[in-house]
Automatic annotation (TrEMBL):
InterPro entries: Bact_solute-bd_prot1 (IPR050490), SBP (IPR006059). Gene3D superfamilies: Periplasmic binding protein-like II (3.40.190.10). Residues 1-22 form the signal peptide. Residues 32-53 have a biased composition (Low complexity). This is Extracellular solute-binding protein. The keyword Signal applies. Transmembrane segments: none annotated. Residues 25-53 are annotated as: Disordered. Pfam families: SBP_bac_1 (PF01547). Keywords: Signal.
Amino acid sequence: MTRKAHVLASVLALTVSMTALAACSSNSKDNGASPSGSQSPAGSASAGAGSSGAKDTITALLPPVSSGFQDRFEQLSKDFNAQYPNLTLKIEPASWEDMTQKLDTQVNAGSPPDIAFIGSEGISKYVQQGMMMDITDSVTPEMTDDYDKTPLEYMKNGTGLYGFPAYMEVHAIGGNKQFLEEAGIDWKKVQKDGWTFDEFREAIKKGVVKEGNETKRYGFVFATAGVTSKDYLNILIKNAGMPASFTTDLKYAYTSKNFLEVLKDVRVMIDDGSMPKELSSIDAGKRWNMFLTGQTMITGKGLATFENSANKNNAKIDANDGSAVKGSIKVDYIVLPVPTFLGQEPKSSTVVDGYVTFRGKKEPTAEHKANVVKAAYFLASGQVAATTNNDLFAAHISKSGRKAAESMTVNRNPDNVAAVQTLLSHATPARPDIPAELGAKAIKIEDEVIIPKLQALLANEIKPEEMYEAVKAAAVKAFGADGVVTD
């Protein structure tokens, strides 16, 4: 489910995993009936380049974007074929945990799927490998005009457009309303005005409950293992004056002294006892289980869909049918902002995930390219998008999605809706100006240096200064001494 909303103020509204919106959602599964008639307005768009009506198959590699999403695959394929009788949409399911591995294996073999659901931050990696398909010359104005401008920008790299956005989610953290109030935390004020790291640190200390030497409840728990391994630091550093891995003059940002200060703060929350010592082994599922069972006051990363997941578990508790998470308690989920660091302005981490278009070793025909565009737009618009985003409690980012959602009801806490809008007003902008080569190098540093060093830092195997120096050395090697921030 999803996991990944992480700019929808100007932008509109949102998630986001799951690289992650998704990887970060609850592991509980909604087995409700799949909606039928999931036709999107894609069929009304002009056929695009090279439309001859010849039979064609479009392949898609898709994770469980929302609860029940994969249950609808057969229906989605039928609806697409009904809209385009000459076209077949062949969907391969993947879990969040193996999505990247499956995609990379296919890309490296030179035979990727036509469409894959990934985070927009991964586009530069595949552009650099020459496997992304620029659809700029194949989309219709009706398609691009359907989307809010900001999320569509996230699907670009340079001048190329590489797919359609599914949602824009904002990464937040989430609190247990009862526990927050017991700790004396004015969560409504925090939702409205935010909080500094020092204020946050004191708040999570108050959320700790101990019995003798045993901690029964932590103040804060964040998933840092598995597919969530990069989320924690990425979310925090946005609020420390580093909204992207590169500054606007294209210098690598994480050599800033502010990066080191955040690393120190990451460690101090564990040393305070506000977070578990075994934080480096907590994955998304365990994090959510700890929240639902009352073992933490605040959890992260928090996405809009978590409120929905908590509501569903509450209903299962009320039904007393044994289907609720074992040992869980009823929870009123409260959206909270990530704290700011070092006097910096709030910058919400956003996630724009979507249906990204790939090509194989051979240049695709104009007709196949146009068919892939139709399939990607079908998945990312209209009722398909509306159903998925309602499952996620994510805001709709297309006109067709909003229209289709008018007949759907969503039971959301209005305080949370307002909090998300506030977060979106601080959302980080898209950075299509970052060259694919630089973006790919930054991803390599993240995968090979930042993530493993962060795991070591969380496990108390290295000090913050050691991690900082390792990242700095890798950055200077990759970008040169003049290509990194020095302050």
